[in-house]
Design brief:
four-stranded antiparallel beta sheet, 19 strands, alpha+beta, 365 residues, 5 helices
Amino acid sequence: MKTQNLLLTSTIFASLCLTSFDAMATYIYANSFSVNKIANIQDSISRTAMHTFGRTPTAVMNRQQQIMSPTQDAENTPDMYGAAPMYGSAPMYGEFEAYEFAGRSGGDSEIIDIKNLQLGYSHYDTKVALDNFERTNSDYDLAMFGITDGYTQFMDTTAGWAIFAGAINGSTSNSALSLDEFGGYAGLYGRFDINNLGLAATFNGGAIDNDAKHEFGTDSYTNMWFGAGINATYNINLDNTFVLQPGIYLGYTWVKSGDYLSKSRIQINNTDANIFQVSPSLHAIKQIDDGWYGTAHIRYVKHSISGAEITAGDIKSSTLEFEDFIEYGLSLEKSIERFSLSGTILRRDIGQDGWGGSVNVKYIF
C-alpha cells in the first residue's frame, strides 16, 4: 500500500510540473472547479435577485407620475422624484396596493403596501477557461422563489426589501473529470433609490454537494458559501420611453472548501477561498408599446481569488485562476393585469464561451 501511494504521489508531482495538466493530475483540482462554479452561481444569484425584485424599466415615467404624485404637474414630476430605479420599482405593474401621498417637506413619508410572489428559472451552458486546462464544460440550473413586501417612500428616497430561496443543479466536465453538483441557497435583497441613483444589495448563503468522477472512482465532498454584493446605477433619461443606465457591481464570496480522502487513496485538503468580483455594466431600457418593455445590456465580469490552495498527499499547489468574461443580453417583459412575465437570453465570451437564459413570473396579490 505504501508503495502504491508513493507511486501515485510521484505521478501527481510529475504531472503538476507539466505546462499542460494531464488526466492523472486533473482530479486533485476538483475543488478548484467547484470554487469557480460557485463564483459563477453567486454572480447569477445576485444578478437574478437584483433583476427580479427591481424589474420595472425606468422608461415608464408616466405611470410613475400617476402613482407617486397624482396632483403634481407631469412635466415637473421627474425632476422632483427622479427616474424610476434599475428595472424600476413597483409602478410599472401596479404593485402599490394603496398609497397615501403626504408631500415632500417636514418629514412627510409614505408607507406603501406591496406584496408579490415571484418564481424564476435560469439555465447557463458555457465552456470555462481555467489556467492551463482545456476548456471545461460547465452548466447549471437555478430555480428562485421570492416575496417582496414593505416598500417605503420618504421624500426623494424609496426603500424596499425581499427574501428569496432556491435550488441549484449543475455539472462540470472535461476529458478527465466529471462533477455532478446539487444544492440550495437563501438570501435577502434590499434597495434604496434617491432620484436617479439606485443602490441595491444582496446577502445570501448556500451549500452544494459534489460527486467528482475520475479514473480511480468517485470522490464526494461539500462546499458551503456566503456572499454579498452591491450594485450602483444611474439613470440617464433620453426621453419618456428610453433610458440608459450605467452601473457597477462589487461582490465578495467566501467558500468553505471540502477536504476528503480520494478514491486514489490520496488525502486532498483545500483551504477556504475568498473571491472578489468587479463588474461594470450598461443597460438600455425601452418602453415599446402595449405593456411591452425591452432591455439590452452588456457587462464585463472580473473575478480575483485568494486561498483555495491544494494539498494532495505531500504535494502543494495553488488554485486555478479565473479568466474575465463579457456578457451581452436581451430581455423582454410583459404586464398582464396582476401578472408580469419576462424572459432573458444572454451570451458570454472570452473567459467563458456559451449561452444562458431565464424566465420569470410575478404575481401581485
